[in-house]
Amino acid sequence: MTFKTGVAAPELSKQAERRRGWKSIRKNWELYLFVLPTMAYFIIFHYFPMYGVQIAFRDYTPSLGIWGSPWVGLEHLKRFFDSYYFWTLIKNTIGISLYELVVGFPVPILLALALNELRDGAFKKWVQTVTYAPHFISVVVMAGMIIAFASPGTGLINLAIKAFGGEPVPFLTEPGWFKSVFVLSGVWQSMGWGTIIYLAALAGVDPQQHEAAMIDGATRLQRVWHVNLPSIVPTMVILLILNVGNFMSVGFEKVFLLQNPLNLESSDVISTYVYRSGLVQGQFSFSAAIGLFNSVINFILLLTVNRIAKRLNETSLW
After folding, report:
1. With bands split at pLDDT 50, 70 and 90, how would you rate the model's confidence at 288?
2. Which of 59, 212, 293, 294 has its CB surrounded by the most CB atoms within 10 Å?
């Protein structure tokens, strides 16, 4: 079917949509102006640097430049897969990330549910302040505190162990302790800050649901389980998807600061290996290939978990 102008109806529909779109932009240009700095930031610092990702497939030499360096394809990835360190890096990275997810993800939820039940305003504010404060400690200071507290000779933790008749534990020189020290210190530092989103979600719970549950004879624990917890499930799913999207990205700074030759067996992760091979040894293409591999795995995990969440809970990022 065509109109008298000879233009197909679908084409006219597209033109009408474009006109409406431009009209909306002109009408709300102030709002689009606010978005412009954010768009510029992502284009300049996130999308434009993707141009350099191609060095992962080249034998990059700074004097030749990116385009002048010879193309080697997947040679660097094959070298990484065949290397002695590959399985150790994968095991440590997945081990720390899984440990963080299993231990660190539920703690802010439990803390938020507990804080939401507190009726004493002054005590509640004090608990929130105490739990939020560690978030504002820098990574360098946090690493220094961990090293000082875990010292076998003068650390507060080992002094307490000695006071109870135990033997000092070399937390940072014994490979078996590294993951626990890293994860538990991270949970302590971030659990208070992580409760903010959950407390905001709990604030939106309809009080009538609690009143109805109380009329039905539900205890406080039952109301937490059947009213509060289901209300924050969508928030939990979204944050879980985001956490899984960074599953392979173990924080470099803290690992690097706590790392030493004695615990390298359990502390060496992909990010620290990329630093050593790229910046220390100057293997730019090799380290770029490893970093790209890590990012692709994170992207696949993000898409997979997002799709599963959408099918099971009808909650997803898109």
Report:
1. very high
2. 294
